[in-house]
Amino acid sequence: MLEFFDSHFDAAFAWAFGTLVQPALFELGLMDYWDEAYTGTETLLLGVLEIALLCVLALPLQRLLPAERGQSRTAVWTDFAYTLINRLGLLPLATFALTFPLEGLIERLCHQFGVPRITVDTLSPWLAAHPLAEFLVYLLLFDLLGYWVHRSQHRFHWWWELHAVHHSQRAMTVWTESRNHFLDDLLGALIIALAARLIGTPGSQFIWLVFAGRLIESLAHANVRFGYGPAKRLLVDPLFHRTHHAIGLGHEGAHRGVNFGVMLPWWDMLFRSAVFDRGVVPTGIRDQLAGRDYGGGLLTQQSRAVERLWERLRGHAPAAPGPR
Questions:
Q1: Least buried of 37, 144, 197, 291, by fewest C-beta within 10 Å?
Q2: Percentages helix, strand, coil for the chain, rounded to the nearest 5?
Q3: If we measure between CA atoms, which residue out of 55, 58, 59, 51 comes closest to residue 87?
Q4: 212 CB burial (10 A radius; 0-12, 13-18, 19+)
Q5: pLDDT tens-digit profile of 50-70?
Q6: pTM for the complete prediction?
């Protein structure tokens, strides 16, 4: 199955790059940027595919079975703007460029000090011969890492000031997953990319790991009033994740929030941060009820988060909600 999708995607990519991108680079005298254009084309195609799938899978359900009606169109369109920026290549390309040299550095250091390179494949050669099983192992590893990155976004006050951009959306839709401060997004992506380099994740595997993770996360933000029924403990669903965004739950309590799972609720169940069956609950941050404004437009949200971060670093920001 993985090879089927990979081969068809490779064919589409080869056509787009060979027919459209490479000739354009040549005509414009930009062949020095061949590597960047190659990566950018790949991330662009994945983003287009993901947005198309979300339109087909989620938008009809949001119309038929919405958790909330009468949402602010301005807020939804702002989230869609975030989605276009995030999914069509800007941030993934920056992450790739920053982490690319690490692979060679790791190889040189291992060779210099005579240390064997420890990767998933070296620990279990059997996985290298079974791509689907290897993919599932990587999925578990990166989802566990994603869980702890997400908890850190809530635990560390300075990081929360950036992550609050995501939680300040009170009209959740399938596009809300991409609503993040760019620094928050970049920091999280760098951590994941660095981990991928360290454990030697193959590029073909990493592409589809990112794709699967983003698709499941986006669907978990959908404005629908149902979960996945019996499968709710197997995959993060819209009701489970809506509880994570709930006012009074999303950034409070002993863990400074609940339901941090990215794709799988298993880690929340294991580390006792899971809350099931809360149903459709209002979303947002508690201090919004007291009038705090996190900004309505993309640029305002970005700038106010930097202001909050600066105040936090200076020690002037109000303390984050503590244990109940």
A1: 291
A2: 65, 0, 30
A3: 51
A4: middle
A5: 999 999 999 999 999 999 998
A6: 0.86
Q: In whole angstroms, give the CA distance from residue 299 to residue 294.
A: 11
Helix (H) or strand (E) holding 51: helix 34-57
- 8-state DSSP, 275: -
Distance CA 88, CA 44 (A): 5
Contacts (Cβ under 8 Å, ≥6 apart) of 316: none
**Tokens (6 digits) for 189:** 């992506």
Cα of 49 vs its chain's centroid, Å: 16
Work out the average pLDDT over 172-195: 91
Distinct helix (H) and strand (E) counts, the chain: 15, 0
Q: Which amino acid is at 251?
A: H
Query: Has residue 282 got a pLDDT over 80?
Result: yes
